[in-house]
């Protein structure tokens, strides 16, 4: 019983009832236009004094409503109302203007149904409760009988008076049942009539994919620039602290490297955040490349106490800008891994060479203890794989021996070397 009561008077049923009442309110101007047509056509001077003429005006107004539903904002507004009042999930509705002929036809059909059902339920909601109240009190109030309210003479019979309160009470849940039924039908029809078409679903999927690609790109940039900077600064500061009294010259170099690293990272961070801030212009800091900052990257890494040996068999100035930028990030992440897993003072080998029409990058470093078992795991290594894949290349990372970790990436050339 509680389930039946909830389906008739629960929150969802009440909201759908409100949705129908709004449809009835929207139908009123069209009914007035229909009455202007029906009055002269039938010669009636009081269209609203006749129930059949009211129905005729309603029937004439609905096709007019279907035509006006071609207004571009109709579908977005109706979809918003269905979402909040009918309980239909947002991803099953289309919130853009109807574009094709089929979309406009379905919108017109929906608008006509909404106003049609809404007009009927709104009329019943206005007329039935007062009539039910009269039936309930009719046996007890003699002044209401005798034709004073225009009731048929049958209501003067004793058996009719005895049944009148029952009919009055029963008419109220009947009204609620009609409203709940019409609301459920509209909620069911909303998806095929207001839902997105395959074209709109494809456009939404492409927009989500583009947004995800931008987010992933920003995540990679933040991880590679900020993550590397924090690792480098931590090691540089630790190395400087350990030799603070014995090697002032090394301390000065470490502090200078920290200053340079943080300054560059703040610039890169400003550039990335400029993209994230809606309406802001992107930051002006240029993305680092092998040509612009490979020497600086190696110098800052060495300032942390690591011995970095670099072999560059390629001219960074001749590399295409996109390739040079992505290669820089790969080298940067490789050095970040070396800083995390190589022992203090351990040597790191970096090799950059052009072979067979591609740029090959190799970073090798010893590891203390068990080699990290996260091939293809970690955000940094996953970012390297993404960068290589976007350029049509490959990237692998993992232990080569029990004590050595090797990162290797091959990127196809996109321009003259």
Automatic annotation (TrEMBL):
EC primary class: transferase
Q: Does the keyword Transmembrane apply?
A: yes
User: Which GO terms fall under molecular function for this chain's record?
Assistant: ATP binding; phosphorelay sensor kinase activity; protein dimerization activity
Q: List the InterPro entries hit by this protein, alphabetically.
A: HATPase_C_sf, HATPase_dom, Sensor_HK_TwoCompSys, Sig_transdc_His_kin_sub3_dim/P
Q: Where are the transmembrane segments?
A: 20-41, 53-73, 111-138, 158-191
Q: Provide an example Pfam family for this protein.
A: HATPase_c
Q: Which residues form the Histidine kinase/HSP90-like ATPase domain?
A: 326-413
Q: Cellular component terms, GO, for this chain's entry? A: membrane
Instruction: Name the Enzyme Commission number(s) assigned to this protein.
Output: 2.7.13.3
Q: Where is the Signal transduction histidine kinase subgroup 3 dimerisation and phosphoacceptor domain?
A: 215-280
Keywords attached to this entry:
ATP-binding, Kinase, Membrane, Nucleotide-binding, Phosphoprotein, Transferase, Transmembrane, Transmembrane helix, Two-component regulatory system
PANTHER family reported for this sequence: NITRATE/NITRITE SENSOR PROTEIN NARX-RELATED, NITRATE_NITRITE SENSOR PROTEIN NARQ
Name of this protein: histidine kinase
Q: Which organism is it from?
A: Streptomyces variegatus
């Amino acid at each position: 019983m509680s389930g039946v009561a909830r389906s008739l008077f629960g929150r969802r049923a009440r909201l759908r009832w409100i949705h129908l009442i709004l449809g009835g309110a929207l139908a009123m101007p069209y009914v007035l236009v229909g009455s202007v047509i029906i009055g002269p056509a039938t010669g009636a001077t009081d269209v609203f004094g006749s129930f059949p003429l009211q129905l005729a005006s309603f029937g004439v107004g609905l096709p007019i409503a279907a035509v006006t539903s071609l207004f571009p904002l109709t579908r977005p507004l109706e979809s918003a109302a269905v979402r909040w009042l009918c309980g239909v999930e947002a991803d099953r509705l289309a919130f853009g203007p109807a574009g094709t002929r089929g979309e406009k036809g379905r919108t017109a059909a929906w608008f006509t149904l909404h106003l049609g059902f809404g007009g009927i339920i709104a009329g019943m909601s206005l007329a039935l409760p007062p009539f039910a109240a009269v039936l309930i009190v009719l046996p007890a109030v003699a002044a209401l009988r005798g034709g004073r309210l225009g009731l048929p003479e049958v209501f003067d019979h004793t058996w009719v008076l005895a049944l009148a309160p029952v009919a009055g009470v029963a008419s109220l849940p009947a009204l609620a049942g009609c409203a709940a039924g019409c609301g459920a039908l509209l909620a069911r029809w909303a998806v095929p009539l207001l839902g997105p078409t395959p074209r709109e679903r494809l456009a939404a999927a492409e927009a989500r994919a583009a947004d995800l690609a931008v987010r992933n790109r920003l995540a990679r940039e933040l991880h590679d620039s900020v993550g590397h900077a924090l690792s480098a600064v931590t090691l540089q500061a630790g190395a400087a602290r350990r030799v603070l009294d014995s090697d002032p010259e090394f301390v000065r170099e470490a502090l200078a490297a920290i200053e340079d690293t943080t300054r560059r990272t703040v610039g890169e961070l400003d550039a990335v955040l400029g993209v994230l801030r809606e309406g802001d212009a992107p930051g002006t800091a240029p993305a680092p490349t092998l040509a612009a900052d490979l020497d600086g990257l190696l110098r800052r890494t060495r300032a942390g106490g690591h011995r970095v040996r670099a072999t560059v068999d390629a001219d960074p100035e001749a590399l295409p800008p996109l390739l040079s930028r992505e290669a820089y990030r790969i080298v940067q992440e490789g050095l970040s891994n070396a800083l995390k897993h190589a022992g203090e003072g351990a040597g790191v080998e970096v090799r950059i060479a052009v072979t067979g029409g591609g740029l090959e990058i190799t970073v090798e470093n010893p590891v203390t203890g068990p080699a990290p078992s996260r091939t293809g795991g970690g955000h940094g290594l996953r970012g390297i794989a993404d960068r290589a894949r976007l350029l049509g290349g490959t990237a692998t990372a993992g232990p080569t021996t029990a004590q050595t970790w090797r990162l290797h990436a091959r990127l196809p050339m996109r321009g003259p070397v």
